[in-house]
Write a structure and sequence with these properties.
With 336 residues, this protein is α/β, with parallel strands linked by helices. 37% of the residues lie in helices and 17% in strands. It has twelve helices and 14 strands. The model has no long low-confidence stretch (mean pLDDT 96).
């Protein structure tokens, strides 16, 4: 693709993202994206919600209620938007994201961040191993085939608070029973991001100018990431380092916990068998354990590099977010 410059665009060209629509604005990650975008103060935010939704949005967020089975209502809600951010939970109806993407194309929305907040989506081998790679690629390909929008994938790894506090099938920690399961020797490093850092990543990405001003402008711009992934991370960390943080913030000693080691590839195979047998816990086991293989599957910072500096992302305090994970676990947040 020939490099475009803002200075060469027709009169009236807007070299910024002003209007942003968000699907799932009140959800687990969506609320942090909204919060950080409001802090930036660069965007007019529209939350796309189901008719009948009772989600409360923060002041400054416009709400458009839609019928996902009526494309005209989606197109109307997305008209005039510069970007669309999609965050949907696992319980979202099949095909709902496709409906939104097709409506965005019909409305002429130029930028889409699809519902893919995970690892390196370009690692096709890992994508096949965890079963989510092909459907995610289909979504990205569909956006390109429609020819109206460009996509940017957010590779942020697993959410740290969710994965540390969310039970033994994620990062291996069971806070109620004080047990931890290490994959192999517990020293394989992965990239992981906090919810606020994920929100900042999206807000700061969409806060970039769209195009460089001219050939001398080397500052980051949104077009640098057109139909690519942006790679961000809070921590590059292993399970033993997570455990050390847990001990620091809880005041416990290693003797207060039962530590088990399992071969990661064996654990992954067990997860696949359970998932294929209809056990949903197997899916969590296979997805998480695959990222701890020794092939750097979960450490995209080592294989691709990170874009934290380009987006102006801050360094974060590990123990602060370990405390947050412990509070969530002890409050029963993950029990439902």
């Amino acid at each position: 693709m020939v490099q475009e410059y803002a200075g060469d665009q027709p009169q009236g060209f807007k070299n910024e993202i002003e209007n942003v629509a968000i699907v799932g604005a009140g959800g687990q990650s969506g609320k942090f994206i909204v919060e950080e975008m409001l802090k930036n103060g660069k965007h007019k935010i529209t939350a796309i919600t189901r008719a009948g939704s009772t989600s409360k949005m923060p002041e400054g967020v416009h709400v458009k209620k839609v019928d996902y089975d009526d494309q005209s209502s989606l197109v109307e809600a997305l008209s005039g938007q510069d970007a669309l951010v999609i965050t949907m939970g696992v319980t979202a109806p099949p095909g709902q994201q496709t409906k939104v993407i097709e409506a965005a194309a019909a409305a002429g929305v130029p930028w889409i961040i699809p519902n893919e907040f995970a690892g390196d989506g370009l690692n096709e081998e890992v994508g096949r191993d965890i079963f989510t790679g092909p459907p995610h690629k289909n979504v990205r390909d569909h956006i390109e085939k429609l020819g109206k929008s460009s996509w940017v994938g957010v590779a942020c790894g697993f959410w740290y608070e969710y994965s540390l506090g969310g039970g033994p099938y994620r990062y291996g920690f069971d806070f109620k029973n004080r047990t931890v399961t290490f994959f192999d020797d517990g020293t394989t490093r992965i990239n992981t991001s906090t919810w606020p850092q994920t929100g900042r990543s999206v807000a700061n990405l969409l806060g970039l100018k769209v195009l460089p001003e001219d050939g001398n402008d080397k500052s980051p711009c949104l077009a640098d990431f057109r139909n690519k992934f942006v790679y961000v991370s809070s921590f590059t960390i292993n399970q033993k380092e997570m455990f050390d943080s847990v001990l620091r913030v809880t005041g416990a000693s290693p003797n207060d916990w039962k530590v088990t080691h399992v071969p990661v590839k064996e654990y992954y195979r067990e997860g696949v068998e359970q998932f294929q047998g209809g056990n949903r816990a197997g899916f969590a086991k296979l997805v998480y354990s695959r990222m701890f293989f020794p092939d750097l599957a979960g450490n995209f910072g080592a294989t691709k590099g990170l874009d934290n500096d380009k987006l102006g992302l801050p360094e974060e305090d590990l123990d602060e977010f370990t405390k947050a994970a412990v509070r969530l676990a002890e409050s029963g947040y993950f029990d439902s």
